[in-house]
Specification:
Elements lengths: L5 H8 L3 E5 H15 L4 E6 L6 H10 L2 E4 L2 H9 L7 E3 L6 H10 L3 E4 L2 H14 L3 E8 L21 E2 H12 L4 E7 L10 H19 L6 E3 L16 H11 L6 E4 L3 H4 L3 E12 L4 E5 L8 H5 L5 E3 L8 E6 L8 E8 L6 E4 L20 E6 L2 E6 L4 H5 L8
Helix pairs in contact: 2-3, 2-9, 5-6
Bound molecules: pyridoxal-5'-phosphate.
The site of pyridoxal-5'-phosphate has 17 residues, from helix 10.
């Protein structure tokens, strides 16, 4: 990773450890900045993809805004040096406490996902005595052609307000005393490999913008969400420029600024999960590499049957054999990979690639497993950006019945 052998990182920090590259994070962000230069557009990193403070701080230094889905993420962004007035707040279940926190610190905009949430925001803003900036997240009902768990813009999805209801909701919002209409948003899904559905969604959103202009409702920004896919195996995602150009063309002569909320495409291929081989287990039917990382560390294979490339950190001279790579967790769903040809022995280290997005962020303590350490590599330097959890960390706050 950059100038540092992964074996040295494993020796120094132990395993499992998430390892990120500053240079790769930076160049992923710069690709968006480059494609958007000369346009009025902001890049609001989707914090849920990887919410480590070190990474948030790096993006804040590069000029990013942030897309958040909880008050917890807002607190992280502020702790990492992010500007509240560059924060967009998405999510279907914002609590009154979260809404109040966001209004008080002065976020840029709420992406409102239901009529009931609009009422709640208006009432909380009234209590606080400030106007809440809002956009509706509309559901354009386009098929993003991705995994059903990460498709979010279909009619059947829990996300956003129905396209046909949006105009009425904006008219209602325009009458409210404590909200201020700022924009309109959509986000149709994740790991998108075809730019066409986003362009289709953008056109639908623009038609709504024009309809509402007749009612005197105008927008400062149009937020087209995130979702650009990355290569895990053999996918060929569009380049950032190819993905953004048709969208920029649609907005060429328009007054509204653009927002994007990329997550995976900024961090996914900037990180890997470093793990150690505990045992080899050769069976009649299948062979297993049992490693010290598991589904609690990287849930994507168990959750979406996702593919992550796995490479040995040091090459072995032996012949490869076909293995399932599995963790110690007591679930048959606990696998990291199926049918990989690997030449490994116990004690070797493996790098599970493309693990920077939805890796650590989705990790848990299942089986009372402390969560992994995280390090950020910068040239020849390695910075610990999250200590490995200790066991007392795991049961802090628990209690037992009185004697
Ligand atoms: C998850 C999410 C994103 C980021 O999606 P990626 O596929 O990681 O780019 C952006 N916006 C919203 C509202 C999201 O929920």
């Amino acid at each position: 990773m950059e100038g540092v052998p992964l074996a040295d990182i494993a020796a120094r920090f132990g395993t499992p450890t998430y390892v990120y590259s500053r240079a790769t994070l930076t160049s992923a962000f710069r690709a968006y900045q480059h494609a958007l230069s000369g346009h009025r557009a902001s890049i609001c990193y989707a914090v849920k993809a990887n919410s480590n403070l070190g990474i948030l701080n790096l993006f804040a230094r590069l000029g990013a805004g942030f897309d958040i889905v909880s008050g917890g993420e807002l607190t992280r962004v502020l702790a990492a040096g992010g500007q509240p007035n560059q924060v967009l707040f998405s999510g279907v279940g914002k609590s009154a406490v979260e809404i109040r926190q966001a209004i008080e610190v002065g976020i840029r905009c709420f992406n409102v996902e239901s009529a009931a949430e609009l009422e709640r925001i208006d009432s909380v803003a009234g209590e606080v005595g400030l106007k809440a900036p809002i956009a509706f997240r509309v559901n354009p009902d386009v098929d993003p052609k991705t995994h059903p768990y990460i498709a979010t813009g279909l009619k059947s999805s829990k996300f956003g307000v129905a396209f046909g209801e949006a105009a009425g909701l904006y008219r209602r919002a325009a009458t409210m005393r404590n909200v201020e209409i700022r924009g309109i948003a959509c986000h149709i899904g994740s790991q998108l490999l075809d730019p066409a559905p986003i362009a289709e969604a953008a056109e639908k959103v623009l038609s709504l913008v024009d309809t509402l202009a007749v009612d005197g409702i105008h927008f400062d920004h149009v937020d087209l969400g995130g979702g650009l896919g990355i290569r895990y195996r053999d996918e060929i995602p569009p380049t950032v420029t190819d993905y953004l150009s048709p969208l920029l063309a649609l907005f060429q002569n328009r007054r509204e600024a653009l927002c994007f909320e990329p997550g995976r495409s900024l961090v996914g291929n900037s990180g890997l999960l470093l793990t150690r081989v505990e045992y080899l287990k050769h069976g009649e039917d299948r062979n297993f590499v049992v490693v010290d990382a598991a589904m609690n560390d990287l849930a994507r294979p168990a959750l979406y049957d996702a593919y992550h490339q796995i490479v040995p950190v040091t090459q072995q001279p032996s012949e490869p054999r076909r293995y399932d790579v599995v963790g110690p967790v007591c679930e048959s769903g606990d696998f990291l990979a199926h049918d990989r040809d690997l030449a490994v022995t116990a004690g070797d280290h493996l790098a599970i690639l493309s693990a920077g997005a939805y890796g650590m962020a989705m990790s848990s303590n299942y089986n009372t497993r402390p969560r992994a350490a995280e390090v950020l590599v910068d040239g020849d330097a390695v910075h610990l950006v999250r200590q490995r959890e200790t066991l007392p960390d795991l049961y802090r706050g628990e209690g037992i019945l009185p004697a």
